[in-house]
Structures are given as structure tokens and as C-alpha cells.
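User: I'll paste a sequence; please echo it back and then give the predicted structure.

Assistant: Echoing your sequence first, then the prediction.
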Amino acid sequence: MNTMEEYLNQLKAAFAEEDIEYFNELKEDLLEQLAICLEEGQTEAEVVARLAPPEEIAADFYADLSLDAAINAKTSVVPREEIQDVFIQTQKKRMQKFIKTVFKVLRPLFLLGLLAVFGFFLIYVVKELIEERNLAGIPTILCLFLLAIILQVIKSWFSQKERLINGVAIGLSGLGVALLLFFSVTGQLMYKGRQYYKEINLASSNHAAFSFDSDADVEITTVEVSSTEKPSLMVKGRFKESDIKKIENGSYDNKVDLTLDEENIFDSFTRTGRSEVIFFIPKGTILDDFHLGLSQGDLRLLDIQTKNFDLDLISGDVYAKNIIADEGNVDSDYGDVIIEESAMNLNVKSTSGKTVITGMLGDLTIEGNKGLSILKFLRSDKVVLNNHSGRMILEDSETKKLTATATDGQVIVKRTKGDLSMVNENGKIVSEENQGRLDLKNGSGPTIAIQESKVNATVFSQSGFIKWLQDPSQTINVIASTGTGELRNDFSDVSNDGKYKIDVKSKTGDVKILEKVE
């Protein structure tokens, strides 16, 4: 049979006259399927050749009728085992038919997805060959396997060449397996770049600047050299060929500006490893800019003078000492930041790492999420501490104004001079032996103040516990009140000398003003 008309004539002859309605429904489905296949470029003969024999379709129909009659009959004359067998076979045929129908519908979408993935890996391979002069192992192997699968999906459209297509698909799969073994044995599955060393020298120390960004793991160090030398940068490690070109042309106008190992989708199978960068800065040189932007790395930065000091680090540790700058910015997500004996107006953002700043001169702003901040020996006009759920400790410092806010973290300030304002929602506030104006506000967390000297203070809590310990030798007038909590004030009888006054209020929490006992 080469035409649908012949096929339908034989199919109609296989049906009884009383079942002709079912034949008409089946006829409409077959003609609709033929129209779709013709639009896809198939011939009528190819479509008819793939159809089940007319006798088999009719036999399935009458098997279903027999099964229904046997199940619904009031008196069964058919053995139970035969009914079950007919039912099982019928369900199998229906499932096979359903699977074929689903595959026909989804095959174009599946093929489109395969072609898209194949196209991506093919572009990956070509791009790697052109830019890195490297045959990308994994993308090449995946291209071969994907092409073999694509051939298997479309081979039914070329029924006369199925053997040839099967042979080509097997050959591509075999080549993919061979390359997989070869790249695995030689260690070339991942592109590792090549070992490279370069020292970049600037023309002079006047208006020199360094900017270095990398998404790879980098170890960075600064070294102070003789004032007679010129600023320079040493880069060492494994690098891609495209990055080596950047390094070769990385300096202009007395500035080094490098961006290496940028993360992109075409570096998914690149592993260059850790690199090393050393900055050589002549003594007394004032840089126009010093910028580092890293995804991960360890930084040891010493003896830098610059107008702008900028660090942007996702993970890794920073140790900086003797940094003198007009403005400083440090952004660290997960690493520890330690800055010692430096002078600059500094902004620090930290997500979860530890921040330690000691011996610093200049204004300071810290934005913390859930890390730990330890600040000691600061000399600042203004200190701003914003903390979400971490812990901030300020000790032995001097500032004209301190503003510390937190959501549910801890704010601890000890032995610090200046006007101090601490606000918390749910966490703890601790003030110990401070000098200057105190303004403490808390939502539901505890507030604790310990004082030997006299201060002017305002303490307010919504529902948290307030405890103030005062040296009895430095008696001071304390006005304390609470709405529904317990109240104790050991200094309620002290007269107001007009100079110092402490006002403590809580809406519902306990308030205790106690004499400090050694």
C-alpha cells in the first residue's frame, strides 16, 4: 500500500457494518495525521508504511469489545484468567500507543532543546580555539554525544538512510568516549591555562595608580621599596591566553589597570588555580588610586599612601597596616578584615566576617550584617555603626559623636569619650565606663550601663530589662520609672546638682539602678 486511500479501504473492510462509526472516527484521525506529516516534508508512502496493519487495528478494537462484554456480562462463560490476560494486553497496547503519541508531540521540542545545547557547546569550542588556542575537552566531548543523540532523534525522518545514520551516531559516540579517556589520562579535561610571570613597571611615582580585579583565587601583597625605584607590579601564576594578552598591555598613562579571570558562562570548564600579585611601592609615593576587586583571595597590604583606598572582596582575609588615604572603602562578604595603625575616612561593609580596626585616625562607618566588629583606639570626629544581627564592640576610643544602631545584635561600648547614641530593637546594649553624653534606646532587649564617673544620660526601653550600676562615691541624681515592671532605684534620694542627670524609663520592663560593688 502506497496511498492512504488504499489503507483506509482495507481498514474499512476489516470492520463490521454496525461498527462503521468507530471506523469513521479513526479515519478522521489518520487523515489529520497524514496532513501534519506532509507539512513536515514526509511522503504519503512513508506515512502509510509506519502505520500498523489494518487487521491489527481492527483486532485491537474487537478485543476491547470482547473484554467489555466479558466484564459486564451477568453470566460469564469466559475464564477469569483469559479476561485478565486480554485486559493486560489491551492496557499494554494502549500505553504503547499513548507513548508514541506523546513522543511525536514532544519530539520537536526535545530536538529544539538538543540543538540549543549543542549550539552553545559548539560556540564554546570555537571560542576557546580562537581566543585561548585550546581544544576544550568537556565541551568537545559533549558536542559529539549530543550530535549522536540528535541523529537518533531525526533518523525516522530519513527511513531509507537509517543504517547510515546509526553508523555515524555510533562513530561519534565512540570518538567521544576515546576523547574522554584521552583527556582524563592527560589531565586536560579542564583548561588550566599556562604558567606565566610578568613584572609591569610604571614610568614614575607621579600620579601612579593601581587597579586589579579578578574572579579567581589571588594572593596579594604590597612591599615598600626604596624611594629611588619606580612603582611596579609582579604577576605570577597560571593564566588563560586571553588574560596574558591583557597583562602584556596592562599599563597606560602611568597606571596599571587589570581585570583577569572574569567569570562568564564560557569559563565553566576553566581552572587556572591560585595566582600571586605583588605591588612594589616606593617609600613616600602617594598613589592616585589603589583598587582591588576580588572574588576570593588573601591580602596583606602594608605601607600604602593613596588618595583613594578601595577593596571589594567576596571571600578571603584582609590584613592592612599603615594605610594613609583621603577616603577608604572596604566591602567584604565572608572574609576577615583587620586594619591597624592607619589614617583615613573609612567605610566598611561586612556580611558575616570579622572586622578588627585598631589605632585608626579618621571618621568610620561600618555596615554589618551578622559578623563581629572589634574597634579599638580610634580617634574620630564621627563613628557610625549599623549592625543587623552581629556583634559590635568599641573600646578605648575618642569621638565627637558615635551613632550605633542594631536590629537584634549586640552593641558594646567601653571606655570611650564623646556623645554616644546607641539604638537597638531586640538585642543587647552595654555601656561601660564611658565619658560624655549617653543616649541609650532599646526595644525588647536588655540594656546594661556601668559607670564610675558621672555622666548625663537618657535610657529608654519599650519592654526590655534596664540595669544601671553606678559607683556610690560618684553619687548622681537618677530619675527612674517603669509602667508595669519592677523598679529599684538606690539613688532616688540623691539631690540634683544641676550638672549631671540620668533619666531612665521603661514602658513594661524591669528597671534597676544599683550601687556598683567591687
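The first helix runs from residue 4 to 13. Residues 363-518 form one domain.
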